[in-house]
Amino acid sequence: MVSRLLFRLQVLLLKGVRAWDRVRLRMLMVRHPGLDIHPGASTNLAVARFDLAPGAKLSIGDGVVAERIRDGVRFSVAANAEVKIENDVWLRSELGPLFLRAFESGYLRVGRASQLNSCMLSAKVEVDVGENVLLGMGSRVFDSDQHPVDSEHPEVSLPVRIEDHVWIAADSTILRGATIGRESVVGTRSLVRGIVEPHTVVTGNPARLYSKVGDRASLAR
């Protein structure tokens, strides 16, 4: 009898927390007119960090999941920049923080049913992540050099495209101008610049062809 009562109290407590989180998310959207969080997204996003400048746009779709870890997911969206998280994306942060950043006028999209695991995506011009993409823990995606080398070598920014059903393993780095073809695999601790052909496995620093890979689309969740 006591255990049943405790269970009911726990259920009521969890429902109360979720209800309060929904209120907090609505308040965030009122405070930031460019923020749009679908009602079907995880209420755990209420404990994420939202740094949105005036004119920034951030949309989070239906079924987006996140752990309830304070500041585990960190959004930074500058003026006139846009970040779009499509339906059923898993924003994982249980092993470390997840950073999603778009600089002024930059664009960052994460496609449906992708999974980002404690990694970093940074867009100064454009980072486009397709559907059912897996980004491993500690991986980094940059579309810019971030800083000039010297007075004769300015910062360079080029769009990055990661196509559908790609797996980028842990601690890999994707640099400006990279295109990773659909259903490809980037091995652990690889450094990618340029084009990775579809259905290939690349590894190393710099990443080079290791082997071919078959159908990955059928593994989609």
Helical amount among residues, as a percent range? 10-25%
Number of helices: 1
Average per-residue pLDDT, rounded, comes to 92
End-to-end separation = 40 Å
Would you mind describing this structure in some detail?
By secondary structure, this protein is of the alpha/beta class. The protein has a single domain, classed as Hexapeptide repeat proteins (UDP N-Acetylglucosamine Acyltransferase, domain 1). 14% of the residues lie in helices and 33% in strands. It has one helix and 23 strands. A hairpin with a 4-residue loop joins strand 22 and strand 23 (208-212).
Secondary-structure map:
Layout: H1 2-31, E1 35-37, E2 49-52, E3 57-60, E4 65-66, E5 73-77, E6 82-85, E7 90-92, E8 98-102, E9 107-110, E10 115-117, E11 120-123, E12 126-129, E13 134-135, E14 140-142, E15 160-162, E16 167-168, E17 173-174, E18 179-180, E19 185-186, E20 191-192, E21 195-196, E22 200-203, E23 208-212
Parallel strand pairs: 1-3, 2-5, 3-6, 4-7, 5-8, 6-9, 7-10, 8-11, 9-12, 10-13, 11-14, 12-15, 13-16, 14-17, 15-18, 16-19, 17-20, 18-21, 19-22
Antiparallel strand pairs: 22-23
List keywords for this structure.
eight-stranded parallel sheet; globular; 14% helix; 221 residues; eight-stranded mixed sheet; single chain; UDP N-Acetylglucosamine Acyltransferase, domain 1; alpha/beta; 33% strand
What can be said about this structure in brief?
Helix content is 14%, strand content 33%. It has 221 residues and is an alpha/beta fold.
